[in-house]
């Protein structure tokens, strides 16, 4: 499942640089996560790095984008092929 940044975001800028897929960017008012790029760090780390570094715990699973671990790994492989 992709992750989503909720309205508690304080724009502290710590999540964007730790995302291995560059799925996080500054939105209109808060940071946003592109579900097409988010793999919850599957294939990179044991846990999502944005969640690890977030000081206000504003990153939640996005129920509109449910994905299993195998689906997240497949997305990661596709992203890696596209960037090669």
From TrEMBL:
It holds the Pfam family Fer4. InterPro entries: 4Fe4S_Fe-S-bd, 4Fe4S_Fe_S_CS, PSI_iron-sulfur_center, YfhL-like. GO terms for cellular component: cytoplasm. Keywords: 4Fe-4S, Electron transport, Iron, Iron-sulfur, Metal-binding, Transport. Residues 1-29, 31-64 form the 4Fe-4S ferredoxin-type domain. The keyword Isomerase does not apply. GO terms for molecular function: 4 iron, 4 sulfur cluster binding; metal ion binding. Transmembrane segments: none annotated. Its cofactor is [4Fe-4S] cluster. NCBIfam families: di_4Fe-4S_YfhL. This is YfhL family 4Fe-4S dicluster ferredoxin. It comes from Luteimonas viscosa.
